[in-house]
Amino acid sequence: MTTLSTTSEQARAGLVRSMSDSGVLSSPGWADAFRSVPREAFVPRFQLRSRGGDRLDTYTEQHPGFHEAVYQDTSLITRWDDGGTAVSSSSEPSLMARMLEAFDVTGTDRVLEVGTGTGYNTALLCHRLGADQVVSVDIDPELTAAARQSLAAVGHAPDLVTGDGTLGLAARAPYGGILATCGVRRIPADWLRQVRPGGVIVTNIGTGITVLRVDGDGAAAGRFLPDPAAFMIARSTPAQVHHRAGPYAGLVMNGIGRVTREDLSDVRDTDGFYLDLMEGSALEIALIQHDVLSVVLTVEETDVYGLVHPDTGSWVRIKPLGRATAEITAGGPRDLWNERVTLTTRWVEAGRPGPAAYTLTVDADGMHTLWREEPASTSWQL
User: Fold this and answer.
1) Cα-Cα-Cα-Cα dihedral of 284, 278, 233, 77, to 10°?
2) CB 311 within 8 A of CB 291
3) Distance in angstroms (rounded) separating the CA atoms of residues 312 and 76
4) Looking at the domain assignment, is residue 171 inside a domain?
5) Does residue 267 sit in the same domain as residue 172?
6) According to the model, what pLDDT value does residue 1 have?
7) Cβ of 50: how many Cβ atoms within 10 Å?
8) Long-range contacts of 304-308 (CB under 8 A, 24+ apart)
9) Does an H or E element contain 339, and which?
10) Which of 190, 224, 258 lies at the terminal end of a domain, its last residue?
11) Which one from 75, 88, 90, 91 is the annotated catalytic residue?
12) Which of 157, 33, 11 is nearest to 96 (CA)?
């Protein structure tokens, strides 16, 4: 077992106290897990955004502020892909706590964790449920190997498998629940087939965390947790490089396409509308336009906005012309501007509802339907 310093114990106790006081950590079992499992055993080296957010600071065990950094309630980045996208991290502890509290399985249920990553969340599951009941899968063999060593160092030996977690792990099924510490575009059909009736699936999809209950027909339904959240998207191979907005800045700025002028005089807060438009924080936008990238550039103290759909080569440049007019330049077959404006306008008119306002259903054939009841019943087939 790893010998824990007083500094580490005090830092962990402070994190647990903070999460308990805020209400995100409520059950004694999960509080004990966070208090007992040393996060630093799984992140001996990581990067953390500076307080100003303008740079990434690197921490190792020799750093004088190591334990204080480890037990901040924030994600710790541990790996990047070749395109510069973060592909592995130790997630924000309060978000982990919310997901674990929602993962209501019993100690007699075998569970599947998708996205072993550093192994820290795996260790929390092992502490609470017992390592014999925990199966964890990750696409990256280097991650599973490192996690296995870290878990062994703190006394846990769950079943770790290297593979594509979006396929689940049929050989160990059925499961009482699947907990994914990565994001998915859609709920994989294999997950529905591998969770027993009455079991639970907790995962990030879009900008929310959904908690789905699987029924006897192989379908699932459930609500979203209240707070927005977005994890790194699951990879199908260790070498997969996700699209990023940065490389498309030149296309957005210099692309030649169809030009129109749009009257935004109906928008009360134009600046706020641009922010809503580009962030895509609405759950329906994140799910319907999940493969659309946003670009914001500043040219001569003026913001220029862009949307890009890499798979079809569609793009749009949005150049504000005063308070109530914008010049729209677009290329490619997909009308990203009108799609995004329609979705954003409806979301704003509904009062900018958060994830808790939505329900997700997935039928046995994989059809996803997003529902929102207020202010009027609305649904989207995804």
Assistant:
1) -140
2) yes
3) 34
4) yes
5) no
6) 44
7) 9
8) 304/252, 304/253, 305/274, 305/277, 305/278, 306/248, 306/249, 306/251, 306/252, 306/253, 307/278, 307/336, 307/337, 307/340, 308/245, 308/248, 308/251, 308/252, 308/336
9) helix 336-349
10) 224
11) 88
12) 33
The whole-model pTM stands at 0.89
pLDDT of res. 265: 80
CATH number at residue 190: 3.40.50.150
Residue 382 within any structural domain of the chain: no
Same domain assignment for residues 158 and 206: yes
Distance CA 291, CA 280 (A): 11
Is the dihedral angle over the CA atoms 110, 129, 204, 55 positive or is it negative? Answer: negative
CB 59 within 8 A of CB 69: yes
379 is catalytic: no
Partners of 136 in the β-ladder: 113, 160
Per the structure, the count of domains in the chain is 2
Question: What is the CA angle 15-21-26, rounded to 5?
Answer: 90
| Whole-angstrom distance, CA of residue 113 vs CA of residue 153 | 20
* Residue-number span of the structural domain to which 290 is assigned: 246-349
Residue 106 burial by CB count (10 A; 0-12/13-18/19+): exposed, middle or buried?
Answer: exposed
Q: Are 156 and 178 in contact (CB under 8 A)?
A: no
pLDDT at 153: 97
Give the pLDDT score at 302: 81
* Residue 130, phi then psi, degrees to nearest 5: 100, 130
Segments in the chain below pLDDT 50: 1-5
